[in-house]
Amino acid sequence: MEIITSSQNSHFKHALKLSQNRRERNKTQQTLLDGTHLLAAWLDAGHVVEKIIVSESGYQRAEVQSLLARSACNVLCLANALFSQLTELPSATGVLTLVGIPSAPQAQCAGLVLLLDGVQDPGNVGAILRTAQAAGVEQVWLSSACADVWSPKVLRAGMGAQLALPMIENADLCQLASQFKGPIAATLLDGAVDLYDAPLQGDLALVLGSEGAGVTDALADLATLRIKIPMQAGIESLNVGHAAAICLYEIKRQNRAS
Hints:
The strands form 2 sheets. This protein has a 7-stranded parallel beta sheet. A 5-stranded mixed beta sheet has the order 1-4-3-5-2, sandwiched between helices. The chain is elongated, with a radius of gyration of 20 Å. The N and C termini lie far apart (59 Å). It is of the alpha/beta class. The protein is built from 10 helices and 12 strands. It has helices spanning 10-20, 22-28, 36-44, 62-71, 80-83, 122-135, 152-158, 173-178, 217-222, 240-257, and strands at residues 3-4, 30-34, 51-55, 74-78, 95-100, 112-117, 139-142, 167-168, 184-187, 193-194, 204-209, 225-228.
């Protein structure tokens, strides 16, 4: 197999743009999956792989060879120094997968839906998506102010949740929330009830706000239920990723008991 060593190679330049630029990912509707875990998860979900990029050393690994055999697509081999420009992982597994971003689904009007209102930290967004998948969330709607769910950092933090969890990015949360048939629960302080006293069974849209400003006023006005997580005196707030896990698993607990 030919090993590409030039940074002027068109395939390398395209991959570099995808790894660094949200606009390029949006324009092409493509992204890169970094590592063997995400590639395996993508294949397990039955999705099509467009191209696999391997490093010179990664190509020699038995795990990578096994995944290449499963994918049956074009393979591009880069010199190790060139490949390292495409990944932020300190110990890269030597494989990147170019895939098409799945189309957004139609917004649900019922069920369990999670609304992320300006959650900007990639690690938080990824962790929330992972928890949402585990807790049985049916859809996630993300405002335009949220971190890009198809960026390398969010993909790593989500551990492949994006591959199975239906999501609508750049969503008009107020418009979608106004069409939801069930209660809209938002994490707020003013006029809020204790999470463990709140009725969270059945159809529900849960709203989580940004790390700094919280839920926007427009969405807060649409909330039919305001909830707060009980905390010890002197603690103002929790990390939004932790708050998401607590809320989602209380919702799961109540619905499991019903």
